Amino acid sequence: MFQWLQKYPHFLEIYYDLTEVCLRPFKRWLKPGSRIEPMVIAIERAGKGAVFNCKMCGQCILHSTGMTCPMNCPKYLRNGPCGGVRLNGHCEVKPEMVCVWIVAYERSLRMPTYGHEFTALQPPLNNQLKGSSSWINKFHGIDVDLPLGWMNAMDIQVIRDQEERHAV
Amino acid sequence: MQSDNGKPCSRLERVLQAGRFAVTSELNPPDSADPQDVYRAALVLSEVCDGINAVDASGANCHMSSVAICALLTRAGYESVYQVSCRDRNRIAILGDLLGAAAMGVYNVLCLTGDDVSAGDQPEAKRVFDFDSIQLLRSARMMRDDAVFLSGRQLTTAPCFFLGAAANPFVPPYDWRPQRLAKKIAAGAEFIQTQYCFDVSHFCEYMRQVRDLGLHEQVYILVGVGPMRSAKAAEFMRTKVPGVVIPDTVVERLRKTPIDRQQEEGKKICIEIIQQVREIEGVSGVHIMAFRQEELVADIVLEAGLLPRPIK
After folding, report:
1. pLDDT-based confidence at residue A65 (cuts at 50, 70, 90)
2. What is the pTM of this model?
3. What is the pLDDT of residue A162?
4. Do B63 and B30 form a contact (C-beta atoms < 8 A)?
5. pLDDT band of B4, cuts 50, 70, 90
6. pLDDT per residue over A67-115, tens digit each?
7. pLDDT score, position B7
């Protein structure tokens, strides 16, 4: 319904920062298992569902993926496009759909704040968090509570700086 | 990864490390429970290749499992490349299979996302994709380097892997493809086998970007090539097989050839492409995928001037 908003990724990344600032004062009530959790989930589902077709994975990385929800990819890829993208930029699995990652890449180039995170290594999905609120998970660090083995992948740098990224 | 004597466990890695131009090929996986079918299929490849890839239900069609094929090949002393796709198994199964493969002497692992289930003959199957190729690479690399599972649980003996990944420079977003390669290298890839290359000038441009990022010094790139059986087969490949791009000029060249000589022409095109990509800086070898015409691989290797092999 509001998916046209995705045409303005820079506006959305500002809005993303703003959401965090606005929700922060309520941090002590925003807890997993709290009484208002179902309400928060409903609001998040309605809002992000309308704009991003959010799948409620509970560990939102929208700002690292060009403000485009990677869970719309039929293979649930979180680290970039597969090798099956069609020449017209459409999806291998759903020929009528433009590849999520094609749009994500184009949008990430228009995001001065978070655009560089596009090349970051994304950890495997935590399937336990499906259906929970990523806002609550973010405030309490639940979404970055990664498997121990992954921890030393956190500081791997893929491409050194933004300049190099644009040089290609 | 090195064994106790200081040499890499993987023969393929030793070939690449020595700076020799490597040749790998793909085994046609049998729909059979007879191990002899694997050996029969391997026979035509083993004399001319440094590694034989065992595909993991390629195109989402069920065949003998890649881990079993690799184990059989290893028994006969052949060098195998174990392809792992994320489509059919979750992380528990995949990591367990990796350890099992290592225990059976399989050293080369190619980490893939995998074609979607809809590409195969059982599109009603459940797609898993618990990992993507990059997360799989990273998890395999930490098993090898840190001797831990993804969960952090310790391994008593770490596997001795030579880790690979796939790359497809021929599909969009073109200018991000070199960065995707960078990502795979950062996640742990040491060699790359690319999708079929039929457009050498496009590949040259890709390699230029790869060199600009300095990636050709961090990874061995094996270019995917293969003979087309006929113009009809080429048409099928480019319309039905996900990710395969064949320029019109190539299909046209085949179409202009009389039908009984098209297979020969397809082979000729393949040899020409090998000779062209060999000249590109940063290319370390070729990966010959001759689906259902494996008997041609030996001819191709011979005529492209890549013998003697395998290099021990």
Report:
1. very high
2. 0.94
3. 45
4. yes
5. low
6. 999 999 999 999 999 999 999 999 999 999 999 999 999 999 999 999 9
7. 83
Percent of chain B residues topping a pLDDT of 90: 93
Q: Quick check: bond before B310 cis, omega within 30?
A: yes
pLDDT digits 0-9 by tens, B209-218? 999 999 999 9
Q: What is the mean pLDDT of residues B237-257?
A: 94
The pLDDT value recorded for residue A160 is 55
Are the C-beta atoms of B155 and B148 separated by less than 8 Å?
yes
Does position A22 have pLDDT exceeding 50, yes or no?
A: yes
Mean pLDDT of the region A2-27: 85
Whether A159 has its CB under 8 Å from any CB of chain B: the answer is yes
Shortest CA distance from B186: residue in chain A: A158
Query: Is B77 an interface residue toward A (CB < 8 Å)?
Result: no
How many whole angstroms separate alpha carbon A63 and alpha carbon A114? 6
The residue segments making up the domain with residue B219 are 11-303
Mutate to test the interface with A, among B90, B99, B110, B113 (most CBs of A within 10 A): B113
Count of structural domains within chain B = 1
Band of residue B275 on the pLDDT scale cut at 50, 70, 90: very high
CA dihedral of A86, A87, A89, A93, whole degrees rounded to 10:
-10
CA atoms within 13 A on the CB side of B64: 23
Q: What residues are paired with A148 via a beta bridge? A: none
Quick one: pLDDT at residue A15? 84
Greatest CA separation found in chain A? 50
Which residue in chain B is spatially nearest to A88 when comparing CA positions?
Answer: B172
Q: Is residue B144 one of the residues assigned to a domain? A: yes
What total number of domains does chain A contain? Answer: 1
Q: What is the CA B55 to chain-centroid distance, rounded?
A: 8
B127·A101 Cβ contact <8 A: no
CATH number (domain holding residue B16): 3.20.20.220
- Amino acid, res. B250: V
Interface subset of A 8-67, CB within 8 angstroms of B? none
Chain A residues closer than 8 Å to B243 by CB: 82-85, 92
How is residue B51 written in tokens? Answer: 């590694």
